[in-house]
Design brief:
Blueprint: H1 7-19, H2 21-24, H3 32-35, E1 46-48, E2 55-57, H4 64-69, E3 81-89, E4 92-98, E5 102-105, E6 110-113, E7 118-121, E8 124-127, E9 130-134, E10 141-144, E11 148-151, H5 153-162, E12 164-166, E13 169-170, H6 176-184, H7 186-195, E14 205-213, E15 217-222, E16 228-232, E17 237-239, E18 242-244
Length: 247
C-alpha cells in the first residue's frame, strides 16, 4: 500500500474547512484565547479566529485544533515538569522534560519517579521485578506493553526515544525490518502481551524509523497483513516503542 499526502492538499483542506467554519463546525466556546488564537497580527501568515480579531500565527498553516489532533497537548508546567522537549505546536508539546530523579511517562503523561533496576530474562524485560516488555522466541528486541497515542512521524520518533522501559533504559522507534519481524511473530507477541497486562497490537499501520524518500516519507507496516507502505511524515499512525537487546 502506498499513501502519499501532499502538503498543498492539506493546506487546501484547511482553507476549505475555515471557509465553511460558521455553518459546519460546532464548538464549546467562542473565546479566541481559549482556542489558541492570541496574536494581534501575523506578518508571515496565519489563521484568523472565527469569533474575533485575534490570529493564530503559523508558517505551516496548522491550526490550534490540528495541533491538538497531532498530540501537542502538554504545557509542561506540572508537578516535576521542567519544560517541553522536542517539537512544539501552539506553544504546547508532545512530551515534557522532568526534574532529576523523574522520568516522563508517555502513556499517563506525567513525570514519575525513575526506577533504575532493569534486566532481561528470556521472553521478558523487567523493571524492579515488573514485566515492562516482551519478545517472541528468537527476536533481538523487546516490545513495550502498550501503544503510544497515534501521532505524526516526528512526534513518534521523539516519543519513542523518551519512552522509559526502566529509568534511563530508553526505547526507540522500530526499523521497517523489525516491524516485519513483529508481524511475523504477532501471535506469540499478542499472547505474551495479553498475559502480562499489555494490549495486543492494533490491526493497522505502525510507523517505522526507516525513511522511504527525501526524509519526508517513512515506511509503515500493517499488523493486519504485513503490508509495507509509506506515509508522509505529517500523517498519523500507530506507535509502539521497542528496546533493542544489543544496544
Amino acid at each position: 500500500m502506498n499513501k502519499k499526502y501532499l502538503l498543498s492538499s492539506v493546506t487546501a483542506g484547511i482553507a476549505l474547512l475555515y471557509a465553511n467554519h460558521g455553518t459546519a463546525q460546532c464548538v464549546s466556546t467562542q473565546d479566541c484565547a481559549t482556542l489558541g488564537y492570541t496574536e494581534s497580527s501575523c506578518p508571515n501568515g496565519g489563521v484568523k479566529c472565527p469569533f474575533g480579531n485575534k490570529w493564530f500565527c503559523s508558517s505551516s498553516g496548522i491550526t490550534p485544533e490540528q495541533c491538538t489532533e497531532l498530540g501537542f497537548t502538554q504545557i509542561c508546567t506540572g508537578t516535576n515538569q521542567t519544560g517541553g522537549s522536542g517539537s512544539t505546536c501552539n506553544k504546547k508539546y508532545n512530551i515534557c522534560k522532568c526534574a532529576s530523579g523523574y522520568t516522563w511517562d508517555i502513556i499517563n503523561k506525567t513525570c514519575k519517579k525513575t526506577s533504575s533496576i532493569g534486566y532481561s530474562d528470556g521472553n521478558y524485560y523487567y523493571c524492579d521485578g515488573k514485566i515492562v516488555g516482551v519478545r517472541a522466541t528468537g527476536m533481538d528486541f523487546y516490545v513495550a506493553l502498550k501503544d503510544l497515542s497515534r501521532m505524526n512521524w516526528s512526534a513518534s520518533y521523539d516519543a519513542c526515544l523518551a519512552y522509559s522501559f526502566c529509568g534511563d533504559v530508553r526505547g526507540v522507534l522500530p526499523k521497517k525490518e523489525q516491524l516485519t519481524t513483529l508481524y511475523n511473530n504477532k501471535s506469540q507477541i499478542n499472547s505474551l502481551l495479553s498475559a502480562n497486562g499489555g494490549t495486543k497490537l492494533n490491526e493497522g499501520y505502525y510507523w517505522s524509523s526507516t525513511y522511504y524518500n527525501d526524509d519526508i516519507y517513512y515506511y509503515i507496516v500493517s499488523m493486519a497483513d504485513g503490508d509495507v507502505g509509506n506515509y508522509y511524515q505529517s500523517n498519523t499512525s500507530y506507535v509502539r516503542p521497542i528496546l533493542n537487546i544489543y544496544d
